[in-house]
Design the sequence.
């Protein structure tokens, strides 16, 4: 029997790769001769670049770049085996996690280092950039990234500068690079917010990045000014495009300055790992995550796996820590079945420590049931 293992991480307990290992161990106990393909997955958020690099058997590279406060740091990106595709997380160079809590100030934070990271990937030969949005410390509308990739932002005196969230209102003129970048962008984005306004980047996300109410207002005005200049000088208006407000307006900047397209994170990830090719000739897909709930059903990773598996005619079983979906919701999601791996009352701390063993045991039971009796075999 041929299995494809495609779990997401079990947050705070197992990485996606560790979940694959536990599942494989359970399968081997039930069916020693099984053919198993392990494909650790991610949903487009932080950590996606490393997993995509691993799944494609690519190589990992690091380079010095600016962190959100213009200080030097090391950031990494993955390259596919043919060197044509780079995998990058926006949080690698612009991430909130790169800053200590007292350092967090989104009015002065920049995406410049992310632009440097992209430039290094292009210099290394990449012609497609797969970029995961999320987890940034910035609200600069992607201007820092654009500045690192050849765009100039001039103030009223004609002086070039690198904008931050707090200085967006100083932009008086835009100067495009001499030539467009020789690269295509695929941006994994699950945020639908516009650039500014009541549901925009500043109001919805800047408080999480340390912004005070006054700074939120300042940032929102700055993003609105940025779009005004773009409309005047470039004749473009992407302000209301779903995802424009993602990652502090980075979505807007990628669309406006780099011609990127924003796509559902799960589709970008599944395409990048050639999921449709892996699922060919598979008998059963085992997937999972820490919590299987309404968010899962509303288009997250497992929902995407189920859609593609249905097209290929392959059943999917999900294993998780917490299961809150009803039987009807499980069926509507496209799963053959879903099970919690928890097998006894326990505190969260214990559940985290025993997650690998519990996942292995649940996998054993599923595979044993589906393969050991002829009337039940898939």
Sequence:
């Amino acid at each position: 029997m041929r299995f494809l293992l495609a779990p997401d991480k079990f947050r705070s307990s197992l990485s996606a790769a560790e979940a694959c290992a536990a599942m494989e161990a359970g399968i081997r106990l039930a069916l020693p001769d099984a053919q198993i393909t392990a494909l650790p997955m991610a949903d487009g958020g932080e950590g996606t670049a490393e997993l995509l690099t691993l799944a494609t058997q690519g190589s990992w590279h690091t380079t010095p770049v600016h962190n959100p406060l213009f200080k030097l740091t090391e950031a990494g990106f993955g390259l596919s085996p043919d060197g044509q595709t780079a995998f990058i997380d926006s949080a690698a160079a612009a991430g909130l996690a790169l800053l200590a809590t007292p350092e967090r100030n989104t009015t002065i934070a920049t995406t410049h280092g992310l632009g440097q990271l992209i430039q290094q990937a292009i210099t290394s030969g990449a012609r497609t950039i797969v970029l995961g949005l999320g987890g940034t410390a910035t609200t600069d509308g992607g201007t820092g990234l654009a500045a690192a990739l050849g765009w100039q932002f001039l103030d009223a005196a004609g002086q070039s500068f690198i904008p931050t969230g707090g200085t967006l209102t100083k932009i008086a003129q835009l100067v495009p690079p001499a030539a467009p970048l020789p690269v295509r962008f695929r941006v994994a984005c699950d945020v639908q917010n516009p650039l500014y306004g009541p549901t925009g980047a500043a109001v919805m996300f800047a408080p999480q990045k340390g912004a005070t109410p006054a700074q939120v207002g300042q940032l929102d005005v700055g993003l609105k000014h940025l779009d005004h200049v773009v409309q005047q000088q470039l004749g473009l208006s992407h302000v209301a495009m779903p995802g424009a407000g993602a990652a502090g307006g980075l979505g807007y900047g990628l669309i406006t300055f780099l011609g990127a397209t924003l796509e559902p994170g799960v589709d970008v990830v599944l395409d990048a790992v050639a999921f449709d090719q892996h699922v060919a000739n598979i008998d059963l897909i085992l997937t999972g995550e820490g919590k299987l709930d309404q968010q899962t059903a509303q288009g997250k990773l497992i929902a995407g796996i189920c859609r593609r598996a249905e097209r290929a005619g392959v059943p999917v079983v999900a294993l998780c820590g917490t299961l809150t979906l009803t039987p009807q919701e499980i069926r509507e999601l496209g799963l053959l079945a879903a099970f919690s791996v928890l097998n006894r009352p326990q505190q969260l701390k214990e559940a985290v420590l025993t997650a690998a063993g519990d996942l292995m045991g649940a996998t054993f039971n599923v595979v044993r049931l589906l393969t050991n009796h002829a009337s039940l075999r898939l």
About this structure: The mean pLDDT is 93.
